[in-house]
Automatic annotation (TrEMBL):
Matches recorded under InterPro entries: BetaGal_gal-bd (IPR048913), Galactose-bd-like_sf (IPR008979), Glycoside_Hdrlase_35 (IPR001944)
UniProt name for this protein: Beta-galactosidase galactose-binding domain-containing protein
PANTHER family reported for this sequence: BETA-GALACTOSIDASE RELATED
Keyword presence, Transcription: no
Gene Ontology MF term list: hydrolase activity, hydrolyzing O-glycosyl compounds
Keyword Cell wall biogenesis/degradation (UniProt): no
Native organism taxonomy: Eukaryota, Metazoa, Spiralia, Lophotrochozoa, Mollusca
A matching Pfam family: BetaGal_gal-bd
UniProt KW keywords: Glycosidase, Hydrolase
GO biological process: carbohydrate metabolic process
Domain Beta-galactosidase galactose-binding: from-to ranges: 58-110
Gene3D superfamilies linked to this entry: Galactose-binding domain-like
Length: 111
């Protein structure tokens, strides 16, 4: 998709381009094993050198969560996040957008 996009009824967003990102199982394995992920400190430092436009560009984030007790069903709160897809252990948990309707994503314990 490329060109003007109509959002809602009267809002027109110009210069809109949608790019495909391959999240096939093979591609996911490559991403998850990559050694080129930045630490939080490295990422924060790199932001200082980026333009405002670069800061708004799509990005992938990876985090680790160490659970010491038996996992339980929970929700992922997306407050402060803008728009994207949430993957956990290679499973697409869902899409989110800060304007809604999703404000949380259900995360069952088996994942």
């Amino acid at each position: 998709l490329q060109g003007p996009v109509f959002r809602y009824i009267f809002d027109i967003m110009e210069e809109w381009i949608i790019r495909f990102i391959n999240f096939s199982p093979d591609q996911y394995k490559i991403l998850s094993k990559s050694s080129t992920w930045l630490t939080l400190e490295q990422y924060a430092t790199s932001l200082k050198e980026k333009s405002e436009e670069e800061k708004l560009a799509p990005a992938l984030y990876r985090a680790y969560l160490n659970i010491t007790e038996t996992p339980k069903d929970t929700f992922v709160k997306l407050e402060g996040w803008s728009k994207g897809v949430f993957l956990i252990n290679g499973f697409n948990l869902g899409r989110y957008w800060n304007i809604g309707p999703q404000k949380t994503l259900y995360l069952p314990a088996p994942l």
